[in-house]
Amino acid sequence: MIADWVAASVRARGMVARRVGRAGSDRIAACHSFDDALMSLDGSVYGGRLDGVSTLSEAQRVINATVLWQLRVLAGWMPATGINLVTAAAAGFEAVNIERLAQRLTGRGDEAVFYELGALATAWPAVSETTSLSDLSTALRASRWGDLGTLNDADDLADVLTAAWLQRLMLAAPAVRPWAVTEFVLIAARILFVDRAEPTARFAQIVRPSIAEAWKSTHDLTTFAAALPRSARAVIADVDAPIDLWRAEMRLATTVEEDGARLLRTSIPGPDVILGAIALLAVDAWRVRAALSSAAAAADGSVDVVA
């Protein structure tokens, strides 16, 4: 019933109203020092949570954690029929936790900071107790994440987790599909032409229904695009070289933002409003993280980006 969604929709719209926005992000990026950039966030939804933060990596984690906190708050307003949508969105943070745990288990990430998922966790309470990649793989297989393949390399796991997360999100919100397909294409292109690596069997299996599998044997972006389903080729239409994949990433963020605004504006109280709000909150955080990176780079030439 629509009435069940009214409170959640009102709350979601209120959260969106507190975004920094594109203009605000531009002002942050134009700051001449990282400290000035942080100060410019005072009064924003991120501001109070940034107290005591002194590095870019810390700030970016806080920005991300703020989105997760917003999801946790929103979940408290959701009707029982809609909680799966918020849980599926929060699974992206659980995926990052799992990736960081895998890095720790392979000796690279002793100082990893994990996101606090609260009631939105699906596998993390059990997974977080594992002490080897083998145990991690077993725990994941028994969870909603399912079989993620052989976990020999924590770096490979990140791509599989992202694909599995987007697959879960598509099931909860079919409107996500165009965004997910675009991300599948970009990950596949990055694996082949930036990393110069082979996609894992599990990654290829997850994305096969969306982008088929002929792309796996291509050797340049032209043949890669031609191997994609016709509906997915536009993703990299203006990308001439691997170094230019960022253009497609920027276009995806713009598309998600525009689609989210449309869902928020035109939908009656219900899951589409919630999805629109989640999309706008995620893009806002992405813009603010990028703006902080720009300000830090302008100040000292160094950039330290985290998930």
Task: Please tell me about this protein's structure.
The chain has 307 residues and is mainly α. 63% of the residues lie in helices and 0% in strands. The protein is globular and about 50 Å long.
How far do the termini sit from each other?
Answer: 37 Å
Uncertain runs are 302-307
Number of strand elements: 0
For the record, the count of structural domains works out to: 1
Oligomer: single chain
- The helix content is 55-70%
Strand content: under 5%
| Dominant shape | globular
Radius of gyration: 19 Å
What profile does the largest beta sheet have? none
Mean pLDDT: 92
- The secondary structure category is mainly alpha
Q: Given the structure, what is the number of helices?
A: 13
User: SSE order in H/E notation?
Assistant: HHHHHHHHHHHHH
Question: Outline of this structure?
Answer:
This protein has helices at 2-16, 21-29, 34-39, 56-75, 83-105, 124-127, 133-141, 154-172, 177-193, 201-211, 221-227, 245-266, 271-300.
What key phrases describe this protein's structure?
mainly alpha, 307 residues, 13 helices
Outline the fold blueprint:
Blueprint: H1 2-16, H2 21-29, H3 34-39, H4 56-75, H5 83-105, H6 124-127, H7 133-141, H8 154-172, H9 177-193, H10 201-211, H11 221-227, H12 245-266, H13 271-300
Helix pairs in contact: 1-13, 2-13, 4-5, 4-13, 5-8, 8-9, 8-10, 9-12, 12-13
